[in-house]
Amino acid sequence: MGAEGKTDMERLGLFSEMEYVTIGDSYIPSLNRPFNDAAGKGRQMFPGGSKLMSDLQAGYFDAQFKRVFTGEGYSNPIKLRRLYRLDQSKRNLGKSFLPSSVSKKRYPNLTIGKPFAYSAEIYDKGPRKKGEEYDESKLIKGGPFRLNLYPREYFDPNPYHVDKPLPPLKKTEEKKIEKPFRPSSPSKKMGGMKAGTFDPYPTHSTDPYKTKYEKEVAVNKSGKIFHPLAGTKTRPVRSVLQAYVLKSVNTKNYKTLNLESY
After folding, report:
1. Mean pLDDT of 19-46
2. What gap in Å lies between CA 191 and CA 200, rounded to an integer?
3. How many C-alpha atoms does 51 have within 13 Å on its Cβ side?
4. Segment 46-64, tens digit of pLDDT
5. Interior CA angle at 121 toward 115 and 126, to 5°?
6. Which pLDDT score, from 0 to 100, does residue 1 have?
7. Which residue has the higher pLDDT, 216 or 210?
């Protein structure tokens, strides 16, 4: 590729070539290497392990080593419900509780009850006791019922007809308006179309977005723009300690492996 543009390493996001850190492991050809190692299933948690007698709580006082995440991966909900029902059935010492029957409806003169006594009650007994003191005209609604009147139709064609004369209508006095209200005229614009301004024509202003001054570009003697040198760039580095752990600890020797402290 030419001198201009980015390199292939920079296009991939790697600013420099990765260092070759080795711990003496065998070479793996590129065909057998995984395509995306980070997306795969990595190292899992190994429960249990070797136990040594020591002054610690887990190594001296406990008779059996307590492991975590052992037998807790799966639980059968159907089995748990059956065990719960079996435990609850053992607690029932007596028979199941049977509620009493629903209460029956009672009828008079059927069992021990007597029929309800009947007593006559005069309508509006309270107001009639007052006699002369009470104005009975308040109880009368409308005029008296009269028979043998002048023969006419059963119903009058006018539904609003009343035998009694109506009271005279009350006329409301209307106030005469002496002088009508006239709103003031809207404000006028000055002669000619000036869009509400006082000048005959809006003055033209220069472009406010024009650069006021131009900044000088620093160039060298040859007339080219100066580009500073690039600093140190980051690169991915594989940890040597992690490589030793991946190589030494596996599924076969993780129970018998002893930790060494320096």
Report:
1. 74
2. 9
3. 15
4. 666 666 667 666 566 566 6
5. 145
6. 47
7. 216
- 12, 25, 34, 50: which is closest to 235 by C-alpha? 12
Separation CA 188–CA 196 (nearest Å): 9
Phi, psi of 84 (to 5 degrees): -70, -45
- Specify the residue for token string 């260092």: 19
Per-residue 3-state assignment (H helix, E strand, C coil) for the chain: CCCCCCCHHHHCCCCCCCCCCCCCCCCCCCCCCCCCCCCCCCCCCCCCCCCCCCCCHHHHHCCCCCCCCCCCCCCCHHHHHHHHHHHHHHHCCCCCCCCCCCCCCCCCCCCCCCCCCCCCCCCCHHHHCCHHHCCHHHCCCCCCCCCCCCCCCCCCCCCCCCCCCCCCCCCCCCCCCCCCCCCCCCCCCCCCCCCCCCCCCCCCCCCCCCCCCCCCCCECCCCCECCCCCCCCCCCCCCHHHHHHHHHCCCCCCCCCCCCCC
Residue 51 burial by CB count (10 A; 0-12/13-18/19+): exposed, middle or buried?
A: middle
Average pLDDT of the chain, as a whole number: 73
